[in-house]
Write a structure and sequence with these properties.
alpha/beta, 3 helices, 16% strand, elongated
Length: 129
């Protein structure tokens, strides 16, 4: 049992060192640029690295940033254009036959179609599935 514990501890220490060496030097720049997501492109053999276990001695990496694993950088679409003035169509049902009603649906649709984005909403009998 002690051997297993030592093995797990050595992995944890190794991950801690990896996190510290890899991200601490650029952490101030990440904060300055307001970066909240880190993409990992891991080489074969490291694909099963538990990203949620990376820790800087005080916090886990996932407490500070969103993390995601990508298969390859050349598969990322980098020509992102922010969408502006788009219309949204919101549809939902709050009343059902034989089931409890969902009283928050009208509020959620209003939030989506009038505050978060602009668009039309249809609720209950105004739309069909």
């Amino acid at each position: 049992m002690e051997e297993k514990y030592n093995f797990i501890l050595s992995i944890y220490i190794s991950l801690l060192k990896h996190h510290y060496l890899k991200y601490y030097p650029i952490e101030s720049e990440l904060e300055k640029q307001k970066i909240d997501t880190i993409l990992f492109c891991l080489r074969p053999g490291l694909h099963s690295l538990p990203l949620s276990s990376l820790h800087d001695g005080e916090k886990f990496l996932i407490e500070k940033y969103s993390v995601t694993l990508i298969p390859a950088f050349n598969m990322i679409k980098t020509d992102y254009n922010q969408r502006k003035n788009l219309q949204v169509l919101g549809m939902g049902a709050s009343e059902f036959i034989g089931h409890q009603s969902l009283p928050a649906v009208p509020t959620e649709l209003k939030q989506i179609t009038q505050k978060s984005w602009q668009g039309k909403s249809f609720i209950n009998q105004d739309f069909t599935i």
